[in-house]
Design goal:
With about 350 residues, this protein is of the alpha/beta class. It is built from 14 helices and 12 strands. The two termini are about 40 Å apart.
Length: about 350
C-alpha cells in the first residue's frame, strides 16, 4: 500500500464519528403529531444526536392516540426493514400490545417516561422482567416536576406579597399528567394551601383557555395557575388577558421557547423542563450498548433531573433559545465509553457548561 493510499485511509477514519464503531438503525415512535412544539424539539435533538453518532434514525408519529400509534408501528414493521432498536413512549392501556409486537419481531427497545403505573405496570413489570427485549426506561420524575413548578409559583406569589390561591390545569386522564398534579397537591399540603380544583385540558392550548375562564369565574380569588404543560400555560395566559388590573402567576412544564421569552418579559412566571433531551439521552445509551458497553445489561433505569426557569434565572438559559442547530451539542461527551463515569450524567448543569464553553452557537 503506497503512502497516498495510507493517507487517504487515515483521513477517512478521522472524519468518522469518534464513538460510533458500527452504524445501526433506530426507529423513534413520536407519540404526538409533527406540529406539536415539545415533541418537535425532542425529535430535532434526537435527529442531531443520531447524525452525530452515525445512527440511521427513522421517525413515525402516534397522533396522540394509543390506537393510532400501535397501527403506525405495525405498518412500519410490516413494510420496512426491521430496525436494530426502537425508542417509544407507552400509552396507558396500550403498553402490553406495543411491547408484545416488538418482542414478536425480536427488536430491542427503550421506553421514554415512566407512563405506566398501577395494575398495568404489574402486568408489564420492569425492563427485562417480562419482556426480554425491553432494555431500559429513560425518564424523569413527574411527581417531582409537579412539586418544582408548584414551589416556583408559590414562592413568586409570596415574594410579591400575595397569598397564593391555586387552580391546576392537567393534561389528560393518565399517569403522566396525574403524577405531575399529585406532586403539586403534595407540595401544597406541606404549605397548608388549598388547591381549589384540578381540571383536564388534554394538553390543548385552546381548551386550556376555556377551562381557565371557567375556573376564574368559579374561583375569582385565584391568582396562581399551575399547568401540566407549557402549551396549556400559554392558553391560561390568553384567558387572564381578559382580567385587567390583577397579577397572575402562571407556569407550565416543557421549556418551550415562547414560554421562556414570556418569563423574561414578566408575563409568565415559571417553566420546568429539560426532558426535550430524553430521546437523545436514550440514543446515547444505545450507542454505548451497541458498541459493547455493559451498562444496560445491569442498569434498566436511566433517570435524569429537570430544571426550573423563572425570571430570577432565565438569563442564564439564553443559550437554549440561541441554538438553531442542535448538532452543536457534544453528544459524545455523555458517552460512558468516552469517560470514566460509572453513571450517565444527563443533567443540564453539565450540558450548559459544555455549550457555554463553546466560542459561539449557530
Amino acid at each position: 500500500m503506497n503512502m497516498r493510499v495510507i493517507l487517504s485511509v487515515l483521513i477517512l477514519l478521522c472524519s468518522l464519528p469518534l464513538f460510533a464503531v458500527e452504524q445501526f438503525s433506530v426507529l423513534f415512535v413520536n407519540p404526538s403529531v409533527k406540529a406539536e412544539p415539545f415533541w418537535q424539539k425532542v425529535t430535532a435533538v434526537m435527529q442531531a444526536a443520531a447524525t452525530h453518532s452515525n445512527v440511521r434514525l427513522d421517525i413515525i408519529y402516534g397522533g396522540g392516540n394509543r390506537h393510532i400509534q400501535l397501527e403506525e408501528l405495525r405498518h412500519y414493521l410490516k413494510y420496512n426493514a426491521t430496525p436494530d432498536y426502537v425508542v417509544l413512549i407507552n400509552y396507558p392501556g396500550g403498553a402490553e400490545q406495543s411491547m408484545n409486537l416488538l418482542e414478536s419481531h425480536k427488536i430491542k427497545f427503550i421506553t421514554l417516561e415512566e407512563t405506566i403505573l398501577g395494575a398495568e405496570r404489574q402486568q408489564i413489570g420492569k425492563p427485562s422482567e417480562h419482556f426480554k427485549y425491553w432494555l431500559a426506561e429513560v425518564y424523569h420524575d413527574n411527581f417531582e416536576a409537579g412539586i418544582q413548578l408548584g414551589k416556583a409559583l408559590f414562592d413568586n406569589a409570596k415574594q410579591a406579597k400575595q397569598e397564593p390561591k391555586f387552580v391546576a390545569i392537567n393534561g389528560h386522564y393518565g399517569t403522566e399528567s396525574d403524577t405531575r398534579s399529585n406532586g403539586l397537591s403534595h407540595y401544597l399540603r406541606t404549605q397548608h394551601v388549598e388547591l381549589e380544583q384540578v381540571v383536564y385540558a388534554n394538553w390543548n392550548k385552546t381548551e386550556a383557555t376555556e377551562k381557565v375562564r371557567r375556573l376564574l369565574h368559579r374561583y375569582p380569588q385565584t391568582n396562581v395557575i399551575w399547568c401540566a404543560s407549557d402549551l396549556m400555560a400559554l392558553g391560561a395566559l390568553d384567558a387572564v388577558k381578559e382580567k385587567s388590573g390583577k397579577r397572575y402567576f402562571i407556569g407550565g412544564i416543557d421549556w418551550l421557547d415562547d414560554n421562556l421569552r414570556l418569563i423574561e418579559q414578566g408575563r409568565l412566571t415559571a417553566s420546568v423542563g429539560g426532558h426535550f433531551m430524553m430521546g437523545a439521552w436514550a440514543l446515547i445509551s444505545l450507542v454505548d450498548h451497541h458498541n459493547g458497553h455493559p451498562y444496560l445489561q445491569t442498569h434498566h433505569e436511566i433517570k435524569f433531573k429537570l430544571g426550573v426557569i423563572t425570571n430570577q434565572n432565565v438569563t442564564s438559559y439564553h443559550w437554549l433559545s440561541d441554538i438553531t442547530d442542535w448538532s452543536v451539542i457534544p453528544f459524545d461527551a455523555f458517552l460512558l465509553r468516552n469517560t470514566r463515569n460509572a453513571e450517565y450524567r444527563f443533567d443540564f448543569d453539565t450540558l450548559q457548561t459544555l455549550l457555554t464553553e463553546k466560542p459561539a452557537l449557530h
